[in-house]
Structure formats: structure tokens, C-alpha cells
Amino acid sequence: MDKFVLVTGISGLILLTLSLVLFFNIIVNIVKGRARVKRSIFGLLIFVTMLAFASSLIYLSLFLQTFARYTHEKQIGWVTTESVSDSTRITFYDGRSNRMHFFTTAGEQWMVEGYFLRWGTVLRWLGAGAYYRITRLSGRRITEEMKPIPTYRIHPEEGLWEFFLKHAEKIPGVDAAYGIAVYQYPSADTFYLYINDTGFILRKN
After folding, report:
1. Are the beta carbons of 137 and 101 closer than 8 angstroms?
2. Are strands 174-184 and 74-84 parallel, antiparallel or unpaired?
3. How many distinct structural domains can be found in the chain?
4. CA angle 166, 169, 171 (to 5 degrees)
5. Alpha carbons 62 and 25: distance in angstroms, whole number
6. Segments forming the whole domain that contains residue 51
């Protein structure tokens, strides 16, 4: 959680607590007949002002945190490609493992595949990062011609992910688990791979 969001939220809660303490103190004094009318009205005005500021800070904190989680993206790698005859040479940098991968495939497009586990709403709002696994690179044909396409496996498709895909809805704090893929045409650009709240994103340099 961002420091500004955290400070704003805590400040709002502290101010809310102080305003409620002031309000109950005023009520107790009125019931016991120890407070004058003018003093009580002045105290209530201070209470309303503090309550308004507290509510504003809390709502601002909630809004900023929701917006931050909704727009959050993390760069997890990059891809460069080179078309050679009927094949495509791919260079992939995996930011998670800090490794370079080199691979040659076929097809009009290239593709990055993997798995994605989406946390529940509360955990995502609190800042839980996406849990993912890039599994392989491959080519992708968009014509009707059906020929074998070379596949480069980066990580084994472990039994753990099979369990996630089959039983995600039964795991506390997990919203869903599914396979994901992004693909593009080869070009001279560098494609940066990001992950957000729903899956992979590719953007050119």
C-alpha cells in the first residue's frame, strides 16, 4: 500500500476517533447537566467539522488505493523478434528469473503463454501482487495451413498449477486461476511484457 494512501487513511481514522470522543463527551455533559448551551453548540460544531474532515480523508484514502490497484502494472520481461525466411527468432528476457531465452519458431505471429492466479477482491485491494508463471514461447498461425509449430518451454507446467486451475474457487482468498497468452506480429520493435490485475499486456518500446 502506498505511503501517502496509508498516512491519509490513518489520519482520517485518528481524526474520526477524536471527533467521536468529543461527541460522546458533549452528550455525557449535557445528560449530567454540566454543559452550557452555547458551549455545547460550539462543541457540536467542532465535532461536525472534525467528522467532515475525517470522512474526507478516509474516502480519499479508499479512492486512491482502489485507483492504484485498478491501474497497477508491473514489467516482467521483454521480447525482441527477427523474421528470417519462414521462421521467427525470438529473444525473451524473463525479469522474474533474470534470464535470457533464445528460440526460433514458425508462424505469422509469436506468442507468450502462461498461467495466472487472480486473488480475491480484498487481497488485491490490500496490495497482493499477481501470482503467475510464464510457461512457454511459441509461434502462432492465422492461416488454415496446419503445420507443426516449434514450442520453447521456459518452465515446466507443474502439478501445482493443475491443482489451481481445477480447484481455485475452493481456495480461500483466490478468485480464479486460468491460462493466459499474448501474441503479436514480428517487428523491429522491442515488446515489453507487463502483468496487471487480469493477465499479460504487451507494449512496444
Report:
1. yes
2. unpaired
3. 2
4. 95
5. 29
6. 3-71
